Amino acid sequence: VGVKEDSFNVLDLAEYTKNRPWWRKVFAPSSGSSAEKFNVATQLLIGGVTGWCTGFVFQKVGKLAATAVGGGFFLLQIANHTGYIKVDWKLVERDVNKAKQQLKFHSSSNKMSPEVKSKVDEVIIFLKKNVILTGGFAGGFLLGMAS
User: Fold this and answer.
1) 20 to 30 Å CA-CA from 9: which of 36, 108, 142, 145?
2) DSSP state for residue 85 in the 8-state scheme
3) Which pLDDT score, from 0 to 100, does residue 67 have?
């Protein structure tokens, strides 16, 4: 009785992963939707965890930013009231009116640049292809903001 030797192809995973980072496989536009790669539970879990982490960080950073801006404004008001600084209100009013005019000019055109439009289209395509992942992220984000 003769023993037949089978030939196998060996795939070196270390070399393969060096040439293909994980983020390129997951988020590359040509890679298709995540529904083709992961099951629904995995997509919800990935989206939920990343959304919760993002929401939690946004909540903490938002509180810190609000405290810093409010505290800075409060200190400026105290300094103005006590006479440490003097505000030229006519100059402030002139600059605010100039900013209003520029905002009116830019908002009247209502045209997006081609670069911005192409990026928005890419994001919309990604969101449509990965609805479950996006839904998990949105839910996790809201939970992160609430916690």
Assistant:
1) 36
2) S
3) 93
